[in-house]
Amino acid sequence: MLSFACGHCGRLVFFENSLCLYCRTPQGFVPERLELVALEGAAAEQLHRCANFKLIGCNWMVGTKGRLCRSCELTRTRPGDSDVIGIAELADAESAKRRVVMQLLDLGLPGVTPGQLAFDLLSSEAKPVQTGHDDGVITIDLAESDDARREQRRSELGEPYRTVLGHLRHELGHYFQPLLIDGDGDWSACRDLFGDERADYGESLERHYQSGPPADWPQRFVSAYATMHPWEDWAETFAHYLHIRDTLQTASEYGVVVSGPRAVADKRQLESTPRPDAADRGFDEVLGEWLPLTYALNAVNRSMGREDLYPFTLARPVIDKLTFVHRHVQVQGPA
Questions:
Q1: Beta strands in the chain (DSSP E)
Q2: Is 83:40 a contact under the CB 8 Å cutoff?
Q3: What is the spatial distance between Cα 106 and Cα 98, in angstroms, rounded to a whole number?
Q4: pLDDT above 90 covers what percent of the chain?
Q5: Fewest Cβ atoms closer than 10 Å to its Cβ: which of 40, 173, 294, 295?
Q6: pLDDT of residue 123
Q7: 3-state DSSP call for residue 110?
């Protein structure tokens, strides 16, 4: 995530802010510019709040009063305004969606427009909701925005990591695979790494839930769920790639530098100075910044009595898959 400063007082403001907490100047995010701006002067006259500002606190701006913003207009179905619990859950889910939509725009990925991509954000209070993707429509169970229920599911499924943002990135992986993989040669290379996506999905799903992942999955996959089917392997890897890019961008924006643990004599392999130009470099260079940063962040989390912020180990086959995703995202990047 990029960092932002109040255009009035120059103090730090965050992506989610609709108000500078220091000088009280209203703030709004302009997706066309990827900027958080102070709503004063010409900006206050030319820009308008998203129509969902009062309902769910959306801080994105539009050019015409009463319109939905670039993120909210992608939501096809949501709870009704009178559904108090559903709207509260929707606000959390839309906050995560704004973050991922901003990243997609920043990366220059295609298809982030109504008519191509849509979200059904549904409450499972009345009936079950199956999170998933189908032909450009991403469905999210809003129960995932409840910390207690999400943690219970994470524990039941033995997952090291589970967030609404992670779900969104995973399902977007399904959406982007056919947009990023083009031609027989591309698909052949993809199958060499991830497996043949033409394998029967239903049979793979049944086998996965009956037998579980293979014992050696950490040597070949980024997660246990990635072993279920080549589609899921791609989606899990794509989501992981977005995690890496977003976190490295944040570290770069805040000037986070890892100079190596004091106890280690040779710190060179444990140094990290994240840079903002990941799109212009090979993935091995990106990884060289990423791993030392994760060691430091995990140590900080443990100091707070928390589990590791990054509970993953990347084996070489996983790195090869991430490299493949990186190359295809690079091709789509903004000029």
A1: 4-5, 12-13, 27-30, 35-38, 48-49, 61-62, 75-77, 118-122, 132-134, 137-141
A2: no
A3: 12
A4: 74
A5: 40
A6: 87
A7: coil
Structure tokens belonging to residue 310? 């990054």
Lookup result for tokens 């910044």? 289
CA distance 123 to 87: 9
Question: What gap in Å lies between CA 278 and CA 260, rounded to an integer?
Answer: 21
Place of tokens 């007082």: 9
Burial 239-277 (b: 16+ CB within 10 A, else e): bbbbbbbbbbbebbeeebebebeeeeeeeeeeebebeee
Mean pLDDT of 178-191: 93
> Residue type for 126, please?
A
Amino acid letter for position 141: D
State the average pLDDT over residues 186-204: 93
